[in-house]
Amino acid sequence: MSDAILSERLSALGVPHAFGTRQAVPPPGLLRPQQVHGAVVVEADRVAAPGGLGEADAVVTAGDDPIGIVTADCVPVLVAAASGAVVAAIHGGWRGLAAGVVEAGIACLQRRAPGERLVAALGPSVGPCCYEVDEPVLAALEPRDPELRAVATRTARPGHAWLDLTLVATRALARAGVTDVDTTPYACTACNPTRFYSVRHEGPETGRLHHWIHPTT
User: Of the residues 30, 132, 140, 211, which has the maximum number of CB atoms within 10 A of its CB?
Assistant: First the structure.
């Protein structure tokens, strides 16, 4: 039985989607890229090559196939134009967030759906309760968000901080012009190892959660 998590706001648009769990099964024909923790965006419905979507960390489509990304602590971001005709799936790891993957994905979606209201939802990821990072991570993220340390971190041991990665992604969406954001699907992956895969909890060899979205037309 599927244990996928839905966003009320995306569901209200009639957009098929799901945030994955250990038990959730991805849909047939799911298109997803080779994720490399960068800021490259691929438009799945405009890729003609048979070799797949290539390296990217954000996918946009108005096509007939579902698109998605995988995570095991990073923030999954699913976005839809209000019409449901164009959607995006974004992989929000700290490196990608520092590189501007959210802003790049939203910019592409805005070009494909000019003038439309965008609705985003953020799914399960490692929470500020479990995500301790060091100074190089904070320094990489700070240029895009100068208020990062004040609003998205709390004190940890010297040279480290507990980071709210979901809040970092939410603030990136706001900078890109997306303020209709559903965070209710969020749950800490590291705190819930029976339901989610987590690199922080289990190490890099753990499985991956599939998150996907499909245009309504």
Answer: 211
